[in-house]
Amino acid sequence: MKIKISELKELCVSKLIHNLSREEAEIVFEDFLYGEAAGIKSHGFISFQGNVMGKVGLKEKELEIVKETSSCTIINGNKGLGHLIGRKALEFAAKKASEGIAISGMFNTTSWLMPGIIAREGAKKGMITLVMNNAKARTAPYGGVKARTGTNPLSIGLPLKTPFILDMATSIRAMGQVRLAKKLGIELEEIGYDADGNETNDADKIMSLKPFGGYKGYGLNLFIELFSGLVGKMGSDLKKGWDRGYMIICINPSAFGNLEDYQERTEKLISEVKSEEGVRIPGERAEANYLKVIASGEIEIDDKILEDIKGL
User: Fold this and answer.
1) What CATH number has the domain bearing residue 29?
2) Residue 292's domain spans which residues?
3) Cα–Cα distance between 65 and 272 in angstroms, integer?
4) Tally of domains within the chain
5) What residues contact residue 269 under an 8 Å CB cut-off, 6+ apart?
6) How far apart are CA 196 and CA 47, in angstroms?
7) Helix or strand run (H / E) with residue 287
8) Is residue 311 part of a domain?
9) pTM of the model
């Protein structure tokens, strides 16, 4: 059904306001709104209950800076909301990258829903932004069938005139898409394996997901697991959401030369890439979907998901 965005906002904020300030609640809402409106419904309001509700009370503890150097910040989130702590981690990295490159690592926090949201914010700050994290084992290694690593998403945001936001799981599908398929009865292709190691497209039977792109995707998936393990746990040691490691890398393009010149050169390349009909830049369709929905003032949301939110 269609609902006014203003009405959906008040509904969701009313569920969050008991443990968050109005400003914090609106930030959390906007993250879910972006996923839903951009057409990434697996990371929209279907995740509202599991990702936020029941956890918002934990944000009362302030984040703790465990270690800090001129180019690095390591943050203990004290089981706070990744939506909020992730933005603070981004601010640290962006500020330290004023003359080059900086990184923030964080752990002991809830999910930030999608790394693309953080990468998008970083790009708005004028930074080339890489965002990634590991997670509970859901992905089988290339050549295997048992889950050994997380879906381990990666996002890259570039501060270009034409928005560039790459946001992807390194498994063939994100777990959010599996949950969406279960909820709405959507049929999947054979994206994973059941308990007996047989390929399956049944969302109720999937015990592990394939890596995307065969051995190439597997290599990237494993790298993110190992890299995130600098601050979080890995593999079989990663049992709870708090155990994940999150990484944000900010690179200031101005440190390499004139930003306007770089943007002009990228626009030339993008025009060449898009010279064939139907070609898009990563994140372009999602951004266009989002802006169209926001301009309309209404959003389409499945009745089952809306009823779940009302019942919280």
Assistant:
1) 1.10.1530.10
2) 1-59+284-312
3) 45
4) 1
5) none
6) 28
7) helix 284-296
8) yes
9) 0.93
